[in-house]
């Protein structure tokens, strides 16, 4: 991995903060969300802003920003990688590093539901707003929609999500909705990946806002991958698969993704920690394998 010059990056931020907006203005944008491959491969790195820094049993694996940036720059340089999903702080760094030329840049919109917090399901929009994405010339937004039928805060998140989808559609910007039905088990929030729960989450997400014209889905593979064909019949919205926590079974995750990628509504992958922090440490190899599945 090429080294990120810490002194240079911090120096620019200290003395020339306007350089971020200037870099965004200069950035070469690709003409379409989906490129010549007809598929979408996005590297996700929006976890830190929700306090989710762990990878496997490494509790603070994503805490070293310079290490993360080096991994991201390497991943973005690999053939077939279309772009990145992250929060403003990381995207600003990548802009300054010149790593976002001709890439799909997707801003993460709601990071208020901090991992493990009592208010985790009151997932407020503390990240990019639609007007920020438009002003910076970014290509899409992503939001997380977790619903617990027993938690009243889910209704506030549903309402805020619908209005965010409206704001994005007004600007003709795609928005990727990542829905989950979840439950608290021993006080911890757990996503339900059963076929019925994922089906319900897709149905709810698809119907939000005044139009779905610019809405995409970002969905997990179900506990039983064989259920995905029926689950994905719930909506005609284009969808991408998310990576999620895969543990040590990298090969098993690839096989789950491979099968789901054959479904007609599934257009690609948005994967983060499992590619940036693979068990064997080979970021380039992990990214190349995932691209090969497309």
TrEMBL record:
Residue spans crossing the bilayer: none
InterPro entries in the cross-refs: Aldolase_TIM (IPR013785), Cgl0159_dom (IPR054574)
Pfam family, one: Cgl0159
Cgl0159-like domain boundaries: 38-291
The protein, known as: Deoxyribose-phosphate aldolase
Protein species of origin: Streptomyces maoxianensis
